[in-house]
Automatic annotation (TrEMBL):
InterPro entries: AB_hydrolase_fold, Lipase_secreted. Residues 1-23 form the signal peptide. It comes from Spirosoma terrae. One of its GO terms (molecular function) is triacylglycerol lipase activity. Pfam families: LIP. GO terms for biological process: lipid catabolic process. This is Alpha/beta fold hydrolase. Keywords: Hydrolase, Signal.
Amino acid sequence: MRNSLFIALIASVSFLFTTCSTPQLPPKPVLLSSTQIVFYGNSLLQGIVTSNDSLLYQPADYQISINRITYQTTLSDGTTVTASGIVYVPSQLNSPNKKYPLLSFQHPTAFSNAETPSGTDFSKVIFSYPLFLATHGYIVACPDYIGYGAADQIPHNYEHRQTLAQVTVDMLLATKTFLTQKGINSTGQLFMAGYSEGGFASMAAQKLAEERYKDDLPVTAASCGAGPYAMPAFFKYVTQTSTVGGIANYIYAWETLSYNRIYGLNKPVSYYFKAPYAAQIEQSLDNARTITTSFDQVCTDQFRADIQNPSSPFGKALADNDLTGWQTQTPTRLIHSQEDEIIPFLTSQQTYASLRQRGSSQLTLVALPTGMHVPTEVLFVRRTLDWFEQIKKTTY
């Protein structure tokens, strides 16, 4: 009897250890709906112009179907929510059965729904990066992120690695289901690209795809532009160095308060920011735009001390969002301007050095000598497309 009880106890402990120590994947996303928003024939595409000489727009004989999909994704606490995104499907008049690779394009910081993929006014035939990429022969999937589109009732977890990674990966899985349902065949290649928050989202999603979805989402190549991947180093820099103020303060304060909420730190705004700035930001985050003082002068001494201490609750939150401690064998480019005034170039430098040290032999750093943060996105898209075109021809 005692032996039987002992064996049962061991079995129970073994079961608990196995179930607790093995990370469980969230349920695979369910494609809930797909709707064609608009179809742009070639004559419409030919009429689109871009005033930027850095991007040569040549729609050739393409036509584009633009579709909105909704799908289920999972938050970090296990809650299932409905998310949305846009899928651009190209076809060519002279090659109606041609297959195209899939390109996941993550948008930069959006301050409203109107700046997200689903918020685009598709009744106006205007130039956009996803449309530009689609007319070069890519099926382009663009997640809205949590906090926008179908999930706009939930706060956006700004620059939160896990949330951005999961919603992007689930968008890709849902897009593949959508393509199957519509009988659209791709080449099997998968490219990932994004700039600013989109760069951070792209790297986070690439890491998640490589580590946990390798069979479903084998990544062909990834291009990440000007993201705060080295999160602890990023916060140390902006809280110790003179910054430009204005929109930068909005971004840094938004990220600070997002982590305060996400990680249950529950500190008052005055814990992080000095008077009179704390009262202004507490009244409305938008007020941070009007604060021209350098961010390091806005922050309290206790907040700066927390950032310097990796064992502090905020230090642990930063570490949880750090993307420097992994290895990739996927061809990957980090593209960043050395003059970036919002996201310092050091974030790409440190990420490159750390990932290379860990054996990421196909990682390269493209250091642009000049260019402010927002305008450099144009160069990022051009450099990314040129590189993807080379890979597309050699791997398919």
